[in-house]
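Async update (no meeting this week)

Hi team, since we skipped the sync, here's where things stand on the single-chain job. The sequence we agreed to prioritize is pasted below, unchanged from the tracker. I ran it this morning and attached the output directly underneath so nobody has to dig for it. Comments welcome in thread, and please keep replies under the output.
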Amino acid sequence: MERALGEGIYQQSSPRTITDLLENLESIDCLTSLARYMHHAGGLHLIAGEQDHEVSDSLTAEEYLRIRKLISSNYSVVLTDCGTGVTHNAMSGILQSADNLVIAAGYAVSGAKRARSTLHWLAGHGYEDLARKASVVIGQGRGVLQCGQGRHRGTFVRYLPRTDCGAARSRRC
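Output:
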């Protein structure tokens, strides 16, 4: 998982990371064993990423798939926060096991261009189906603009204020 998600909580509770999980993968045979490597943030069960970029960048696609297989045998939904890079060593494993993608972008023209570039990169590297089905979420200060799935042109956008997600209203892009 990405370094920032739940970072304050998991740093306080336990120093175990995805690298520790990988090193002990063969000895984990049940949810109780797996739980020793998990941190909790709200309703999420997290596996902490590495704080050291060199160690984090060394995770391979094969290692990710081994970890994903273990987690998937205990949880029906697995979310992976990939951070900002689609060229990370583990990315091919992440993408080949993904059913859906959510691409987060900043609320600026540059954020939209980066999201578009990511979609083009995916389509150009054999992940056309994931690019076509991807959801783009545009962060905007206190709320979120969510571009829906589809062709990414003329698609719907909903504004979701952080304090009241039920008060969404539709707009055209």
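Quick observations from my side:
The beta strands are 39-41, 44-46, 102-106, 135-140, 143-147, 156-161, 169-172.
The chain has two domains: 1-98, 100-173.
Reply here if anything looks off.
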